[in-house]
Structure formats: structure tokens, C-alpha cells
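hiii, so i know i said id send this last week but things got crazy w the move. better late than never?? heres the sequnce for the chain we talked about at the cafe, plus the structure i predicted for it. fair warning i was half asleep when i ran it
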Amino acid sequence: MIKNLLFLSFFCFLFSCTTTEGPKITPVDKKAIIDSTISAFQKTLLEQQIDSAFKKYHFNGSIAVFKDTIPLYRRENGYSDFKKKTKIDSNTIFAIGSVSKQFTAVLVLLQMEQGKLNVTDKASKYLKEFQIKEYENITIHQLLNHTSGLNLMGGKLMFKSGSDFYYSNDGFNALGKIVEKVSGKSYHENALELFKRTGMTHSSTGDIFKGNNFGSAYVGTPSKFSEVPNMPKRLGGSEIGTPAGGILSTIGDLHLWNNALYNGKILKPETLKLFMAKSAERHHAIFGKMGYAYGIMLNIGQPNSYFHSGYVKGSPSLNIYYPDTKTSVIILSNIADEERGKGAIFRPHIEVKKITDHLENTQNQLRSKH
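okay and structure toks below
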């Protein structure tokens, strides 16, 4: 990989050199050539590095990298149904866990754009369960960025609202209820309208899913596994909750979502800025220290990226978007060896993120010099 990057740097250096000798010719579009060369090397490096991760971890799932609308890497491996030996393909639908939270955040902000709420409003304005002394000052903003202090509904706050970070699924499920309250529609209806608007024809909420391409979830290993029962209906239950982690999607649909969302096709510019703005920090048990916005995480330092991991039993996922190059990296799976712990479950995701972070930084460095 280092040799390839050195060669690429040298190639770009050659195109940075100019001469005044010889006849006048049409100027070469160096930027276009450099961009084309970077993309070609990026494809090669992604194939080498991510294919290696597939083999190392015997990864069962789907990984794809897109630059805007152009696929740079895509591979499916393993089974969507281990019993029937049905292979994963481009149409396989996965449970995406907490990647769902960004959809809930966007639904809240869409209601704000319609004048039906404000993120500075107290949740108690909309939900009876927040009309107690312990919860009465919690705002929608604090639920969106996990600074409310809420852990489980009905329990004592972890800290004074707004003073710290504590990740709460119940907080996002409350946001789903607020969306229902102000819109007069179920969360599922709101979500399906958003999917339709974005062109996400293969996405759904788990408890209303109807289809044949769902990748059943498993715990264990490909040679010794057990199926997670009642999937995907169980995602809508109290243990998880649809607004917090109950959306189903595909590689292709999440790619459409990233492009539409971050290119301003869903939210107004000022609302999108609010959605992406770092308003908290967290220390993630798997990915380390990072910023947190509204249902998305941010790298601290370079490269610029918006991402979120997800885990519901048997289904680890990761969705990354690099705004500088409009690059999406999406990793979906339907089996997890829980006995080894989440650190081991997410090793492929960590490795792929390191690969794509490094490539993103390299591209930005090369472009800044030319």
C-alpha cells in the first residue's frame, strides 16, 4: 500500500511541473488527470485492503464504497439464510441497528421545518411521561445528542441535563413519539414517506416489513450458529424500539440516503448544518473518542466524516460519509459471535474505517498540493 501511495504522489508531482519551452499547446487539465489517477489507485487499494479484511475475518455480509454515484468497491460474501444456504446479494436487506437514529433525527428536523416543533422545546411539551420533576427540563436537542442524562424511561437521570453525554435508546424512542404527536401520523408512516422521497425502495421499519430478501440474523459462527428469533418484528419491541434501532435497509438504499441527505436534498441548508454540527463528545467503546451531532458521530481531527455504527443482536453495521470527496462507505452483516464481545465483532468495521480514513487523508493531501 505504501509503495502504491508513493507512486501516486510521484505521478501527481510530475503533473505539477511546468515548462516554458516548446510550442504553445492546449493546457492539460491536471486536476482532472490527478482525480482520475487517484480514483484508479483508490479502486486498486480498496480491492487489496478490503478483500484482505474479508478473508482475515471470514466476513459474512456486504461492503461497498461509492464516490458520489460511482462504485469504487463492492463485495458480498456468505449467506443471508444459513439454513437454506441463500447467498447474500445486492438486494439483501439488513437490520441496521443504531444507524436508524439519523433517520429519526431527520424526521424531527423535518417537523421543525414545518413549524410544528423546535429543538429547543422541552420534551414535556409533547409527552406526558416527561411531565415529572426529574425530566421536565429535558429538551429535544438534548435527546438528539444524548446529553439529556436519560438512560431508561422512568429511571433516575445519570446527570443534570445538558452537562454530559450518555447514550440512550429510550431518548430516541421518545423522539419517535414526538414525531408521531406533532405529525398526527405513526412513526412508520413518517419513515416510509421519507424513504419514498429519497428513492429508498428496499427500506422499511422492522415491525411492518413485508418482503423476501431479509437477511436473517444469527449469533455464533458460520459453522455453529443460532437464528435470532422473531426477526425483524422484534425490532419494534420495548427492548430496542424502531426510532432507536429498528430500520431495515440495503447497501444501495443507504448510498442513496447519504447522497440525498448530505447534498441538501432532504433538509434545508440551515437545518442540515444544525444536523451535522458537533454539539457533544462521546467515548465510544469500539471507535474511541469522537464528536456527536444529531444521530451521527464525527471524527475528531482528519478526515472529515459523519458516521454511525449499529448493533442489534446478530447484526453489526457501519455507515460512513466523507463530505470532502462525497464518498460513502457502508458495511452490513447478519451474524455476530457475541461470545467474543463487541470489540471482536466490529474488528472488520474498524479495519475498513482505518483503510478509508487513510485513503481520504491521502487524497486530500494530494489535492491540496495541486
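btw The two ends are 22 Å apart (CA to CA). thought thatd interest u
miss u guys!!
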